[in-house]
Amino acid sequence: MVVYIILLTLVTTHHCVAATDKLNPPSPDKATTLTYPHMQKKNDFARVKPTATCGMREDGKTPWLVIIKDLSKSQNTSTAILQGSIGGGTLIHPSVVLCAAHSAQSPAPQLQVLTGLAGGAGDNVQMWSVIETVLHENFNPMNAHNDIALLFLSEPMKLSRSLGVACLPPADAAPRARCEAYEWSQTGTDGHRGVKTVDVPVLNHQECQEKYRNTRLGRYFILDQSFMCAGGERGRDVCAGDGGFPLVCPAENGRVAQFGIVVWDIECGNHGNPSVYVNVTRFRGWIDRQIGSRGLDTTIYALEQ
């Protein structure tokens, strides 16, 4: 209990996780009553399959990156596209976004997914409604354990060269020594923001735990098995506002795969502390079950395919 209290009060959690934002997760019983537009006609789904392999990109772009908005936190009179944004996410299927659970606690009708913002000003922004949110059944908002969720969209996105899906690694996969994290960065004096890529080292679980035991969290801090760590190089790390963004690592054939989801850190890595991510490989089975049980194709995002 001491560890949980310390973690809650001293750790900088990424992006909008104030106590007032925390709502009860949706009842899993409601999922069985939902139908998806493209499930009503079996032949419809074939037309929304990607035309390219998952994890492919051009010139280092991030075609699978999305922004999640909570409409209850934005003002109707505002023209700011990002007002009400509560975190990032990753498109892993034309109808599914992978994100942090702390960004998906609002009722589905309040959430909206934005695409087309990864390049900067957002001239090609598209907005998508959410029909269902699925938070991991063991998500603990007090300590961010199992901080993973899926957003199911009201209709499938039409994929293109500028809008693609990320790959997910197999459950037994290990990341490379260095991977890529993403952060929001200012792109000009007009206030537009874009995505900046940050090259970061990956730490093993024990090494990361020892680093945090040397911080204010204390020598008894235990890093939960649902976490992984990357970063810790001064001036080269993600920070507040980047919550939910992916950690992607090189894979075969020029592709990349998502191994992590940004959750928290201490002081944005200014003192050499790594950022903490959801370890996506530990939840690959859970992701497959949730998507497959809704009649959607789980091979679309499979790196092993």
UniProtKB/TrEMBL annotation:
Residues 53-292 form the Peptidase S1 domain. CDD domains: Tryp_SPc (cd00190). Coiled coil: none annotated. Pfam families: Trypsin. Keywords: Disulfide bond, Signal. Residues 1-18 form the signal peptide. SMART domains: Tryp_SPc (SM00020). The keyword Transcription does not apply. Belongs to the peptidase S1 family. CLIP subfamily. This is Phenoloxidase-activating factor 2. The lineage of its organism: Eukaryota, Metazoa, Ecdysozoa, Arthropoda, Hexapoda.
